[in-house]
Design a protein that fits this description.
Blueprint lengths: L1 H9 L1 H39 L3 E5 L11 E2 L6 E2 L3 E13 L5 E9 L11 E2 L7 E5 H5 L7 E4 L6 E7 L3 E2 L2 E7 H8 L11 E2 L1 E4 L5 E2 L4 E5 H6 L4 H33 L1 H9 L4 H33 L10 H20 L2 H5 L3 H4 L2
Parallel strand pairs: 5-11, 7-9
Antiparallel strand pairs: 1-13, 1-15, 2-12, 3-14, 4-5, 4-8, 4-13, 6-9, 7-11, 8-9, 10-11
Helix pairs in contact: 1-8, 2-6, 2-8, 2-9, 6-9, 8-9
Protein name: Putative hemin transport system permease protein HrtB
Family: Belongs to the ABC-4 integral membrane protein family. HrtB subfamily.
Subcellular location: Cell membrane
Length: 355
């Protein structure tokens, strides 16, 4: 260990360059992890906030809530407590008298449903043509008391309250009641009759059964995994992260192997002096460990800084437990890479090496 640290002090430039490369790898890993978490959260945050266990969809919807067409009458075919209807649409919000539009996810449910967000400012939906908005929309200039339109519908809706941050499909959310959203979604302003159209039934109970063969029950995690593009997006980003781990191992392994070849004569002299292979290998492992620890610390610090200064529209979220695991993985990958030099060190012949 002492020999390794002493050599690093003497060869600052050489080891600083490798540490810099490792910092870049660690930074890319941590930033990709933040983006993966941000995209995941942006797609599913509203669903996580439901705190539900099951989602009922039309069996022909291919597990896609947007393609699921049901009516409020479907609730009669589901037995259990805390079963509520949910309707949603991806649309654009426009403030009355303004030309700017904001892409949103509009959700609707019963006014007293457990999936309706808890209002933090203003009041809950208690009448027709009322909506409550997420903090994301407040940050974009939509205020309580504003009159808004959704999509091409000319009906004015009043913002009566707001709740915390919430997104679905990377878009900020708003909530209203089933009747209001049904009128907004109606084609050409056609009158809406009961039973009202919905997209899904959401349940907290784990003992529900359905007598309707047109319904399909999905555990909430299965439902989330089938959100459009969700699994492919997460798989792609995670594959890139794992590839960077392999790259880190390869870079350290190659660098240490080249250094070992360059220092064969030095290692030969050390063996003549009675310093064993394990002692020499320990110095190489120490160097790799120190460089990887420094790179992980710097990479984490820069990533946290990026998270603090990232614009609100950027899907970036840090999971410190996950970052810790990735940091440890990078250190382990570096140590494994340094161990690739063991065979070369073990086969150094002192007589040949010092010629």
């Amino acid at each position: 260990m002492y020999l390794g640290l002493k050599e690093m002090r003497r060869e600052r430039l050489r080891f600083s360059l490798l540490t810099g490369v490792m910092v870049l790898i660690a930074l890319v890993v941590f930033v990709l992890a933040g983006l993966a978490n941000g995209l995941s959260q942006g797609n599913r945050l509203a669903i996580d906030q439901w705190q539900a266990k099951y989602v009922y969809l039309n069996k022909d919807a291919n597990k896609n809530i947007s393609a699921s067409q049901l009516t409020t009458a479907a609730k009669n075919d589901v037995k259990g407590r805390k079963v509520v209807p949910v309707s949603l649409t991806n649309t654009a919000l426009q403030k009355a008298g303004k030309s700017t539009k904001i892409n949103i996810s509009a959700l609707a449910t019963n006014r007293d449903a457990f999936v309706m967000p808890k209002v933090t400012h203003g009041h809950a939906v208690n009448g027709k043509n009322q909506v409550i908005i997420s903090k994301n929309l407040k940050d974009q200039g939509v205020k309580i008391g504003d009159q808004i339109r959704l999509g091409s519908n000319t009906q004015l809706l009043k913002v009566v309250g707001s709740y915390g941050k919430s997104t679905y499909s990377i878009a900020p959310t708003l909530y209203t009641d089933i009747s209001t959203l049904a009128h907004i979604k109606s084609v050409g302003g056609q009158p809406v009759t009961k039973p009202l159209p919905i997209n899904a039934l959401i349940s907290k109970s784990s003992k529900l059964t359905s007598n309707d063969h047109n319904l399909q029950r999905l555990p909430i995690n299965t439902f989330i995994q089938n959100l459009p593009g969700y699994s492919a997006e997460q798989t792609t980003l995670n594959t890139m992260i794992y590839f960077l781990f392999a790259m880190s191992l390869a870079i350290i392994g190659i660098f240490m192997y080249v250094l070992t070849l360059q220092k064969q004569s030095l290692f030969g002299v050390m063996k003549v002096e009675g310093i064993g292979t394990n002692h020499i290998l320990a110095s190489v492992v120490t160097q790799a460990t120190v460089m990887s620890l420094i790179s992980v610390i710097i990479g984490l610090a820069v990533t946290i800084l990026i998270g603090n200064v990232a614009p609100s529209g950027m899907p970036f979220a840090l999971n410190y437990g996950q970052l810790g695991i990735y940091g440890i993985s990078l250190v382990v990958a570096s140590i494994l890479g340094s161990l690739l030099s063991w065979r070369t060190i073990a086969h150094i012949n002192p007589v040949i090496a010092i010629k």
